[in-house]
Specification:
By secondary structure, the protein is α/β, with parallel strands linked by helices. The chain has 12 helices and 11 strands. It binds S-adenosylmethionine.
Length: 342
């Protein structure tokens, strides 16, 4: 069974491993799925984004003792992002593979307990940047309902500021940088009068352990994302969102019914649907299409069915931004770029 990681970062091929070396490694261990998963993560996801995780993931792919311990866990609990996040959360080292190995061996019961309990729930305020042009163009004011909200940081798009090239929108913090192509940024921010989130496991921005977990999920080199997390958490903690524990199909109608009259209901989701099975995604689409208001999706290709998509801009992984089922733009996974369709 394939192991899914949170937020694949890149589909570029490795500096560390040539694709020939990568295929040789996968082929040599084709019966060892966890080995292949870590080698693939090193070569295709961490490469170009995090030399630390690239090095570490390659080392784990060859570390029989760590692999043996991972292999007794359910597949979803073996993924690199989860293991590395848990070790960082526990205060363990990820910079040097040998130190990581020694730490993992000495602390495996604690690591395993966290792996079994936690899931990757990266909450990236930067993903608001591609939402802003769509939100600002809808009839105002808005009632925002995010499914798969994690800690709800993307529920505050109206409180942050955005720099699309030279064009600054808003005056809050954090200031989110986004390279915009083929798009005129809006003049102002949307007006939000109600915000609510639904998540299988909502995280609490006022709980230091939950915030520490969100921090641990950010890759080591991404200092700008760590600063953005702190700033976005401060915004949300000052006015905590309504977050409901529940499923995006089973519990959406009841929460949507709480949206106030006189505001445009906007159901949205970013980087959520890869956690959801294909049949449940279909049910969700049917359900959300039946609700009043609008639906914004920002998800990786293959999660929703679109016809006649243009080619993505380059090799790096992109998500697709869509309004009411119509695809509008390619976006980078953390909201760092948006390329509007011509
Ligand atoms: C990668 S996080 C993304 C969080 C946020 N949307 C963002 O972009 O920053 C995915 C979230 O979806 C939630 N999730 C997964 N399946 C879900 C479901 N069936 N119903 C509700 N939430 C779900 C997870 O618990 C997790 O918090």
């Amino acid at each position: 069974m394939a192991i899914r990681g949170d937020e694949p970062q890149s589909v570029e091929y490795g500096k560390l491993l040539s694709s020939k070396e990568f295929r040789a490694l996968i082929g040599a261990h084709s019966e060892m799925t966890t080995t292949a998963t870590y080698a693939e993560f090193a070569a295709r996801e961490a490469q170009s984004e995090s030399p630390t995780y690239e090095r570490l993931s390659l080392a784990v792919s060859r570390d029989a003792e760590v692999l043996q311990r991972l292999d007794v866990l359910p597949p979803s609990k073996r993924q690199p992002n989860l293991l590395f996040g848990v070790v960082r959360f526990l205060g363990g080292p990820v910079e040097h593979p040998t130190e990581f190995h020694d730490y993992a061996m000495a602390n495996w019961p604690a690591i395993e307990a966290e792996l079994r309990m936690r899931t990757t729930q990266t909450n990236e305020a930067g993903r608001c940047a591609p939402l802003i042009p769509v939100l600002a163009a809808l009839p105002q004011p808005l009632a925002l309902l995010e499914v798969g909200a994690s800690a709800g940081l993307c529920l505050y798009p109206d409180r942050f500021a955005y720099r699309y090239g030279n064009h600054l929108v808003g005056n809050g913090e954090p200031v989110i940088e986004c390279t915009a192509t083929g798009m005129t940024p809006p003049d102002g921010l949307p007006e939000v009068v109600w915000r609510a989130g639904l998540d299988l496991n909502p995280l609490d921005v006022t709980d230091s352990a939950d915030v520490a977990w969100l921090d641990a999920l950010i890759w080591p080199e991404h200092a700008h994302r760590r600063a953005r997390l702190r700033a976005a958490v401060a915004v949300a903690a000052a006015d905590p969102p309504l977050l409901v524990r529940g499923d995006l199909v089973d519990d959406l109608p009841a929460l949507a019914a709480q949206a106030p009259d006189g505001a445009t209901l906007v159901v949205f989701h970013t980087s959520v649907l890869f956690y959801v099975s294909a049949p449940r995604r279909e049910t969700f689409v049917e359900l959300v299409r039946g609700l009043p208001g609008h639906w914004i999706a920002n998800e990786s290709p293959g999660m929703l069915r679109y016809e006649n998509l243009p080619r993505p801009p380059g090799e790096a992984l992109h998500n697709i931004l869509a309004l009411d089922g119509t695809p509008l733009a390619w976006t980078r996974p953390h909201g760092q770029a948006i390329t509007w369709f011509a």
